[in-house]
Every structure is written in structure tokens, then in C-alpha cells.
Amino acid sequence: MIVEILFQEVCGLYGDSQNPTYLEATLPDAQFIYTKLTDVPYFVNNTPDIIYIGCMSESTQRRVIETLRPYKDRICTLIDNGTPILATGNAGEIFTKTISYVSENIETEGLGIFDLQVKTDLFNRYNAMVLGELNDIKIVGFRSQFSFLYGDNSNSYFIKCIRGDGINPESKLEGMRKNNLICTQLLGPILPLNPLFCEYFLGLAGVQATAAYRESAMNAYEQRLREFSDPKIPFKHD
Amino acid sequence: MKKIRFFIAMLAGKITLFGLKLLGRNATFLPGKIAVAIDKNFLAGLTPPKTVIAVTGTNGKTTVSNLLNSILLSNGYSVTNNSLGSNVQAGVATALLEDSTLTGKAKKEIAVLEVDERSSLRIYPYLKPDYLICNNIMRDSLARNAHTEFISFIINKALPKSTKVILNADDLVCATLAPGNQERIYFGLDVDKIHEEGPLYLQDIVYCPHCGGLLTPEYLRYNHIGRMHCEKCDFRSPEPDFAITEINKDENKFTVMHNGISESYYLINDNIVNLYNFCGLIALLSTMGLSHKQISDGFAKSKIVKTRYDKLQSGDLTITMQLSKGQNPTACARCFSYVAKCPGNNKAIIFVGDDFEASESPCWFYDSNYSYLADPSINQIIFSGPRCMDQYLRAQMAGIPTDKIRTITDSTAGTELLDTQLSKDIYVLYGPYMVKQANLVKEKLIAIGAGGEDK
After folding, report:
1. What is the mean pLDDT of residues B296-315?
2. A106 and chain B: CB distance < 8 Å anywhere?
3. What is the pLDDT of residues B219-274, one digit of tens each?
4. Minimal C-alpha gap between B383 and chain A (Å)
5. Among residues A54, A63, A68, which one has the least CA distance to residue A11?
6. Can you spell out the DSSP letters for chain A?
7. Which pLDDT band, with edges at 50, 70 and 90, does B306 fall under?
8. Is any Cβ of chain B less than 8 angstroms from the Cβ of A59?
9. B198 pLDDT above the threshold of 70
10. Other C-beta atoms within 10 Å of A234: how many?
């Protein structure tokens, strides 16, 4: 099994860099390929079983888009063929149609997989928590972002929010999904924080694995689930 | 009209200050908040002290401000400072209005202002610093500070071009700040040019800011602190104008080289972050014109405040109290590294976890380098507070044997799980909002050490 981690040296903000570490612990026999921004991605000439990309700065986001743009057709083929791809935080935004960086007065064309627009405003930080549902799996997570997504994701979302916002404050549908490409604005260590989702995601690659450190991961997950279900706990914070 | 508005703001601020002090309250925020609410240009309306120094950066602001204040006072300068209060716009306004006349004229010679990086845009356009010292720009609270590029963007947008900048040459994010400012002084460490033992962790600058090429590290002490150069263009870490060239822990001395001359100073603390703090301070004070004797004597009279670091003995227990800023992954990792490197082979760490924030995001645990805690000299780790289960998982992922880890949800009850037969060196790590709880833990440890509580 081959797992490709894209651009971890610059796409690992907010604890996202530990998602690959958790995958490595969960899949001790898998081969992990860490592709640098200056490398040709492994997926261009090969088919990895899983691809992961994490959170990045805004200038890095623009560079990542330009790095991947020549491989857009290959990325579409991988998505159509069902390769599981996980993009966390603002990484998923690279797959949208356009990104407007309003505070920098820059507009960038994304890879256009999803017909959504992104508005990024460096002078407005949004911090919140999300409790959502993916089939029968409860997902818990955190968001800290400058951006919101606009457009219709009603046929292409990741989770339905039980508490917290979706792709923007008017939405209850969080993230984007096409086949096994999962994009979520939840950031940080989403896999260790959600061991059941980790197992589900690996299932998309045809792997029946037990999430690493399962007992302690489940203890932390269940405690958070209780807290997030408590109506007294506010879901937005400064 | 502008002058009337300013005068009303000043009067309201001073009355609030007087009232709060009369009530015995800590008047370090509200007076300035009221003044700025009445006159949003309040800071611009002041006639500031002759010299205004802004102290900013992710880690070390308070330590540098306190020491700077102490050294300047010990040399007979009159100083306005906000080191006891808030470092946002209202705190800065409070400190300045307190030491101003009703017409806004400064009564003191120098202002030493600790400035929260995020507040740069609300302060620098109105109050132009003569000097800005920045010790580092690292990952901090992800909710407030996002990432280091964002912090650089904010500071660069706000800082006047006329400000003389004192920057850490060993931190390329910091060293490339304020590119339009011509007067630049760099400081750094010219000792121990080696990769720090243990795994290197996250770097916040990897590619050349000029050409985008991959930067090659010559050495990295931790995160992106060290020296790097670009293979594709001539970009490299700047040479420090002031460099620590020798550290003598036995004699509590360190040596700084400047313009080919080596001078010795009293070593208050040997934590690497503080060495950078001290070198930056010396660079700033020398640039301001203070002599070696003035600075050196000031260092000898200064110490780090006890709410940040304290060490005491109770019976056979050595108790070290160490501030470890929550939400700040690098500051915490520095503390972990420091504990791991301290002498002794039977250390215990009690984490006094933040318990005021409902369901705090644990993302920053994963940005912090917990693998230092796997050092064999640490034989007990006790995570207390509501996030103890998250900490347990994080520690397990960092390779710490689970038989060394204990958890308890009460942030003041870590001592209940401590085995004093196993560990005599006890380190208590706590965030800035948990000083009260940490002191309770300290009292319990003192009692245990004195035999007052059977463990």
C-alpha cells in the first residue's frame, strides 16, 4: 500500500502534520511518500492508494495550485477512479473554481473540481467547532480560518452539521466530496481526533485497519462527543 | 474639535484610572479602552516619550520588556511601560495616559511597550516606535495568530519605515520582517551551531522568500531557528551584529561579540529562548547608546519574574515552576526540551492544564514537539485538566511509554498521582492563566516534600 503526502513541509499547519503520523502508526506496513513542492508528485506517473494534503498559508495555497495545475487531468482521473484523497483545513479550497483573497486584492483560479467560490479575508478570522454526521459516524472538529466557500454543495458535501456551520455561516453542509475525494475545513489532527472516521477513510482504500492507539483515541473522542453535544458549550469563539 | 475630543478622552481615561486604583483594581486596560473609544486617534494625539521602544514577537515579549524596564530604571531613566498589564491597544493607551499630563504630554523619557503582534495595526500607525525589537516569529495561537506569514503581513503593513528594527538573525521569518526599514540590527547565537538533539520539528520557512528555491539549513536549533541559505540565489540568514559567542554556566556568564569586541554579562537563565532574549536586549541597549557597564550592571540586578520561573527545595523534592504558554506550541516545546536537558534522571512533570476554556481545541498539542518528553530522564508525566485525555493520546503518538503517563481531570490534583519514590525533581508546567492553580500545586508539593502529606 502506498500513501502519498503532498507538500507536508508547507502544508502541515495547525497540527495537520500529525494526520500522516497517525496514518503511519495505523498502517505500519504501508509505504509513505512525502512529496515536496519542488518534486513531481508521485501520483502523476503512479497510482497511490491514498493521498493526503493539509492546511497551508494563503501564499502557499497559490503556489500549490500552480504546482498542481499542470496535473489537473490526472487528478480528475484519480478522483473518477475512486482514489481516496483527504484535504483538510484550507487545502480543499484548491479544488474550487476561484479563490478571492480580498485583503490582498488577488483572485486565483482553482482546479475547478467543485463549482464553488472561496472568499478569503485576512482581517476576519473565524474560529468554531463542528459536530457533524457522516452516515452513522459522528465527526468532531475545529475550524480556524480566514475563508468561506460559496455556492451549492448540496450534492457534494462531506458532513451534515448537527452543531456548527457548514461551508459558510448560512450553510449546514460542511466540506466537499466527489467520489472518494473528501475536503473538509475542519483542521488539525482530524484523524486521531476521529478514529472512527480514520477507519472509514481507510475503508475507502479497501483497507480494514484498526485506528492506532484506538483505546486512548476513543476515550478522547467520546469525551469530546459528550462535550460537543452539551448545548451549554458555545460553538463559536474568539 | 480634534483637541476637545482628545482632551475628553484623556480626562475620561484618567478618571477611570483613578477610580479603579481607588477600588484597588488592576487598572491596566479599561482606562485606555475608554480613551480610545472616545477618540480613536487617541494614541496619535499624545506627545510620546522621547524614545518609544516596541517589544514584539511570539515568545519572550514579557521577559524582554521586564528586563528592559528594569535595566533602564537601574540606570536612572524614567520609563513608561505596560509590562504588568495588557499588550493590546487599550493596554498601551493605559500605560501612556497614566504617565502623561492632561494635555497628553509624556512625563517620562522612554516608553517600553510590549505589543501583541496582532495589535500592530491598531498601534504603530498612531504611535511610531523609534525602535522595534522582535525576538522570534513562531507558531502561536492558531485561533488568533493563524500562521507566521500572517503575522509578518500584519507587522509589515503597520510598522513605519523610519523605525529602527532589532531582529533575530537566526529566525528567518523574523529577520525578513519590515523589508523597507533601512536601519536594521541583527542578533544571534554564535555558539552550539549544531542541530539540537532529538527530532527537528516544524519549520515555518522552508522556501526562499526571494526565488522560491528550497532553503538549505546549515544548522537548525529547533523549528526554523538556525541558519539557512538558498542554493538557487544569494539569499541567506543575515550575519548577526551582536552574537553570543560563549556561555559559561559554571560562572553564570555569557559573552557577546560586537564589532570584534567581546564583552561579558551576567547569565540570569540559560534557557535558549532567554539567551536570544538577552542578546536582543544587549543589541537594543547598545544601539540606544548605553555602555557595556550600564547594561552589564543592569543584568546583574535583574531576574526573571517568579510567575514565569521559580525553583525551590522542600525536603528531598526539588520543585521547578515553569510557565509554559498554552496554545503556543513552540513555547511549550521549548519548555519540554529544557526539562529534558536539565540534570537528573528521575524527573516528574505535572502539567496544570487550562480549565477555563470549554472544549479547547487540542490542535496545538499536535504542532508542539512532545517527543522531548520521551527522554529517559523523565519517568513520570501527569496530565491534569479537562484535556488530559487528548494530552494522553498526543503523548502516546510521540512515543512516550504509557506506563509513565497518568491523567486526572482536576487541574490542581496532579500531585495525587505523583510517586515521590520514583521522582525527586518535580517540574510544574502551567499556562499564564493557570498561575493560581499552579501555585496550589506548588503548595501541595511543598507540603509533600516537608512530610506534611504522605505520598
Report:
1. 86
2. no
3. 888 899 999 999 999 999 999 999 999 999 899 999 999 999 999 999 998 888 89
4. 13
5. A54
6. -EEEEE-TTTS-GGGTTHHHHHHHHH-TTSEEEEE-TTSPPGGGTS--SEEEE----HHHHHHHHHHHGGGHHHHHHHHHTT--EEEEGGGGGGGSSEEEETTTTEEEE---SS--EEEE-TT--EEEEEEEEETTEEEEEEEEESEEEES--TTS-SEEEEES-SSSTT--EESEEETTEEEES-BSSHHHH-HHHHHHHHHHTT---PPTTHHHHHHHHHHHHHHHT-TTS-SEE-
7. low
8. yes
9. no
10. 11
Does the beta-carbon distance from A146 to B146 stay under 8 Å?
Answer: yes
pLDDT of residue B138 exceeding 70, the answer is yes
**Nearest CA to CA, how far is B147 from chain A (Å)?**
7
* Chain A residues within 8 A of B361 when measuring between CB atoms: 129, 142, 144, 188
Residues of chain A contacting residue B206, judged by C-beta atoms under 8 Å apart:
9-10
- Please report the residues numbered 395 through 434 in chain B whose beta carbons come closer than 8 angstroms to any beta carbon of chain A: 396-397, 402
Q: Which domains occur in chain B, in start order?
A: 2-301 (3.40.1190.10), 309-449 (3.90.190.20)
Contact B389 A219 (CB under 8 A): yes
The whole model's pTM is what? 0.94
The ranges assigned to domains in chain A are 2-237
CATH number of A2-237: 3.40.50.880
Q: Give the DSSP H or E segment for B61.
A: helix B61-74
A224 touches chain B (CB under 8 A): yes
Query: What is the distance between the alpha carbons of residues A102 and B162, in angstroms, rounded to a whole number?
Result: 28
Stretch B111-123: mean pLDDT: 96
Q: Report pLDDT for B277.
A: 95
pLDDT per position as a tens digit, A91-116: 999 999 999 999 999 999 999 999 99
Question: How many CA atoms, within 13 angstroms, populate the side-chain half-sphere of residue A57?
Answer: 18
Please report which confidence band the pLDDT of residue B453 belongs to, taking 50, 70 and 90 as the band edges.
Answer: low
Q: Are the beta carbons of B59 and B119 closer than 8 angstroms?
A: no
Residues in contact with B332: Cβ distance below 8 Å, sequence separation at least 6, in sequence order: B324, B325, B326, B364, B368, B429
| B323 residue type, one letter | L
